[in-house]
UniProtKB/TrEMBL annotation:
Short name of one Pfam family: Hexapep
Any GO BP annotation: cysteine biosynthetic process from serine
Full protein name: Serine O-acetyltransferase
MF GO annotations: serine O-acetyltransferase activity
Phylogenetic lineage: Bacteria, Pseudomonadati, Pseudomonadota, Gammaproteobacteria, Pseudomonadales
This protein's UniProt keywords: Acyltransferase, Transferase
Family the UniProt entry places it in: Belongs to the transferase hexapeptide repeat family.
Gene Ontology cellular component annotations, sorted alphabetically: cytoplasm
Organism: Pseudomonas syringae pv. actinidiae ICMP 18807
Length: 128
């Protein structure tokens, strides 16, 4: 079960997450992958990466509604470096690189190289 895997590895992958072939986690401690995350082929992530929800939708009575798409879509051939936090139903485009400790709540296009410096300069991303 996912609880046994988490206690043995420090990695928390919800059983509902969809993960493509050749997915690789390097130094996995602290990795969290949410229920509705979709991860493409040949994706690599490093320690302390979160693919999480930005919020839970609620019904008219304020009850949280699970099962709605609320976690990121990571397309093929993406690399996400240590400590990155990616929240919400956003898309990380094919072949992109997300740098260490980046906090991201918006989609990025294919081939993007997003770093803290890009974010501080309010640059969308630099192409590889």
């Amino acid at each position: 079960s996912s609880e046994i895997a988490h206690s043995a590895t420090g990695i928390d992958i919800h059983p509902g997450a969809q993960i493509g072939p050749s997915f690789f986690i390097d130094h996995g401690t602290g990795v969290v992958i949410g229920e509705t995350a979709i991860i493409g082929e040949r994706v690599r992530i490093y320690q302390a990466v979160t693919l999480g929800a930005k919020r839970f939708p609620a019904d008219e009575d304020g009850q949280l509604q699970k099962g709605h798409p609320r976690h990121p879509i990571v397309e093929n051939d993406v690399v996400i470096y240590a400590g990155a936090t990616i929240l919400g139903r956003i898309t990380i485009g094919q072949g992109s690189t997300i740098g260490g400790n980046v906090w991201l709540t918006r989609s990025v296009p294919a081939g993007c190289n997003l770093t803290q410096a890009n974010l501080l300069q309010q640059d969308d991303c630099s192409k590889k």
